[in-house]
Structures are given as structure tokens and as C-alpha cells.
Amino acid sequence: GPQAGGWFRKEIKSAKDFNGLKFRMPGLGGKALGKLGASVQTLPGSEIYQALASGAIDGTEWIGPWADEKAGFQEITKFYYTSGFHEPGAGLALGINKDRFNKLSKSHQKMIEIAAGETNLWNLHQYLANNSQALTRLRAGGVKTLEFPDDVWDAFGKASQEVMEDNMGNELFKKTFDSMRSALTQSAAWDSLSAGAYTRQRTRVLG
Length: 207
Hints:
- It contains 7 helices and 6 strands.
- By secondary structure, it is α/β, with parallel strands linked by helices.
- α1 crosses α6.
- It starts with 5 loop residues before the first strand and ends with a helix.
- This is TRAP-type C4-dicarboxylate transport system, periplasmic component.
- Keywords: Signal.
């Protein structure tokens, strides 16, 4: 599912609050924040805690409650945004030399395919099972869980679209983006009517 929006030293009340903010976020998401005026940092995971504790950065994204709790960010700041725009669905990937793979028997190819799929599914279920428990502990420890205001989401969307347009000159990027956008459009129509409606009604009825 979507990764968390991250940890901040202060609340984000408008998109203007990102201007000059020293925030750790790599990849395309970081480029989008840069368009909002953020000073984007690309620190490796092993350096984030110290940078946040020392004030070298004003905030960071990581993964979600379970992993973030292990990283100890709650020891430094209590403002935690629970949904981010930058990674709506993480996926694991396995890369294999194509020539080598094609030399394997069909049964061995299928074994690799199934093992990779099961590993991805196992990883997803681990986070689904542990994120809520970790979130409960974080809140009990004084962490304030927040959502970005609508105008911030609007700014995320505009900046993200600009980043996409900046990269459309790359043939592989455009092919990948167009495929993703088409699949998203097709799946969203049913998802909102099925899983989306069910989740809303379950919450309304059962709390």
C-alpha cells in the first residue's frame, strides 16, 4: 500500500511550508518536492536518524509505522503524516540475465516466477499485519498522526505531473508511464465500487 508521508519537525499546514524545508526523499517524489521549493536530500537509510536528530534535515520519509518505529524516528519528532504521494504501491523486483534465464528448463523458470511472486505477497502481508500494531504503539508514545491538507495534495499532484512531463522525452519512461496510467484508469473504476465501497461501509457499520 501507500508509504507514509513522513516525519516532520513541524506541522505542514500548506504547500508553502515545503519552501526551504530540508527533507529526505529520493527519486521522482523528491523531484516533485523540489518543485515546491524543498531542499531535497538523498541520504542513505543508515544516516537518516542522525541527520534528523542533529537538525541537518527537517524531516524524512521512510516506509510505514512498522519500519519507521524500528528506525526510531519517534524519539526525535512526533509529527507523523500517515499517507504520502510518492510511493502509492511499493513492489519488489527480481532481475535475471535474460540469456541465462532462457537456458533454464521451463520448470525451473516457473519455480523462479512462483517464488518471486510469493515473496512479494509475503512481504505485503507482513507489513499489513504489523503496521497497525506499530501505529498503536507510536500513538501511545505521543506521536501525532496527521493527514496533509487538500491544498497540499493539490500541490503534490501539480508538481508530480510536471515531473512526469519533464521525463516524457525518455522513450522507456513514457512507455512505462502510459502503461501504468492505462492500467490505473481501468482498475480504479471497479476498485472504487467494490473494495472502496466495502471499506467505507465496513467502517461506518462496525467502526
